[in-house]
Design a protein that fits this description.
Rossmann fold; binds (2R)-2,3-dihydroxypropanoic acid; five-stranded parallel sheet; globular; 12 strands; about 15% strand; alpha/beta
């Protein structure tokens, strides 16, 4: 039996019900051991998502019948992989299929932040637009600027491809330099100290977890050019919120576009009053096509494990 923690797109639910007996929790709140543990009778697979935290104590409490946890995400930081391996539970995720959708959101946030789109729309809806004026709501050009990508994985590279259409120069910072065919002319920086001062736009596309925790802190923000624009579609944990809010307040960072936050959905309240912050509710992969593809891939992962003898 397949336990599904939260509602999935209709086509994915339909396929799950066709292929499995399902137990559906329809959760709207965080997953807790109290909610989960008495619902696992006869369950051998769990289909979850980044909001469902499977830490070591919860994994240790799962019955031996659980053979696979599939998550509707590429990110895996909500699952303790070591604990899962120790309990013989296989983990499946959904890489590749959300690459373009997430890169699109990063590009959109760059454009919205630079062109003050959120601010303009709020003003118009509030009935405060007085008409065209030459000095009204001036933003910054995106075309021709230097884009710095922190985390040049699949999504970072898809964003680079899109940004080349805007004649942007691509810089990137990664643990390791990419081979030339993946780099596609992008300029590699081994160090933050050469990367950050070289760029006009910073896009965080790195995964969450200990290696990137609090990466964009006050010290690194200070190394950005005055007036730089910051976009994050990776994980909120890569940003020190207090430091970014201070940089947005001072104008050192001209604008930010954020789709992911620490402590989602309870983001730092300091962002809410900042006109120069474009804030989205973690919708990087939220298209019908992409969420269907993620759901189908997660189900493929479940089936692959359950079909192993
Ligand atoms: C992921 O896949 O990790 C995203 O954050 C959810 O779209």
């Amino acid at each position: 039996m397949l336990l599904i923690t939260r509602d999935l797109p209709p086509d994915v639910m339909a396929r799950a019900r066709r292929e499995h007996q399902t137990r559906e929790l329809h959760l709207q709140t965080p997953l807790t051991p109290q909610i989960l543990l008495d619902k696992l009778d006869g369950v051998d697979a769990i289909l979850c998502n980044p909001r469902d935290k499977f830490d070591a104590p919860l994994i240790a409490a799962l019955p031996a019948s659980i053979r696979v946890i599939a998550t509707l995400s590429v990110g895996l930081e909500h699952i303790d992989l070591t604990a899962a391996a120790a309990h013989g539970i296989e983990i499946r995720n959904t890489p590749d299929v959300l690459t373009n959708a997430t890169a699109e959101i990063a590009l959109m946030l760059m454009l919205m932040a630079a062109r003050r789109a959120g601010e303009g729309e709020r003003l118009l809806r509030a009935g405060q637009w007085k008409g065209f004026a030459p000095s009204f709501m001036l933003g910054r050009n995106v075309a021709g600027k230097a884009l710095g990508i922190f985390g040049m994985g699949r999504i970072g590279r898809a964003l680079a491809h899109m940004a080349r259409g805007l004649d942007m120069t691509i810089h990137y910072h990664n643990r390791n330099r990419l081979p030339p065919e993946l780099e596609a002319g992008a300029i590699y920086h081994a160090d933050d100290s050469s990367f950050l001062p070289a760029i006009d736009f910073l896009s965080i596309n790195a995964p969450g977890g200990a290696a990137t925790q609090g990466w964009l802190n006050a010290e690194r923000l200070a190394q950005l050019k005055p007036g730089a624009i910051v976009v994050n579609t990776g994980r909120g944990s890569a940003v020190d919120d207090e430091a970014l809010i201070a940089a947005l307040q001072s104008g050192h960072v001209a604008a930010a576009g954020l789709d992911v936050f620490n402590n989602e959905p309870a983001l730092h309240p300091g962002y809410l009053s900042l006109e120069n912050a474009v804030l989205l509710p973690h919708i990087g992969s939220a298209t019908v096509e992409t969420r269907n593809a993620m759901g189908f891939l997660a189900l493929d992962g479940v089936n692959e494990v359950l079909n192993q003898v």
